[in-house]
Write a structure and sequence with these properties.
By secondary structure, the chain is mostly beta strands. It has 1 helix and 2 strands. The longest helix has 6 residues. The chain starts with about 30 loop residues before the first strand and ends in a 9-residue tail after the last helix. Bound molecules: zinc ion.
């Protein structure tokens, strides 16, 4: 009946499970944008332009 069979200790999964951060979007975040300080913004294919438009060009500063 219930599909709440997931383990309560799913905290570690947060490192691997990342969905699009666009408001109201539930799509899988297939595109990640490094914001620095270990923060990554994830966007789906449809919203990845949002990330690209605000991406910090930290990688170009080698
Ligand atoms: Zn999205």
């Amino acid at each position: 009946m219930s599909d709440e069979n997931r383990s309560p200790s799913g905290g570690a999964m947060a490192m691997y499970v990342h969905y699009c951060i666009a408001p109201g979007c539930k799509e899988w975040g297939s595109r990640g944008f490094d914001r620095g300080r270990g923060v990554t913004d994830w966007y789906c294919f449809e919203h990845r332009a949002h990330g690209e438009s605000s991406e910090h060009k930290i990688s170009s500063k080698a």
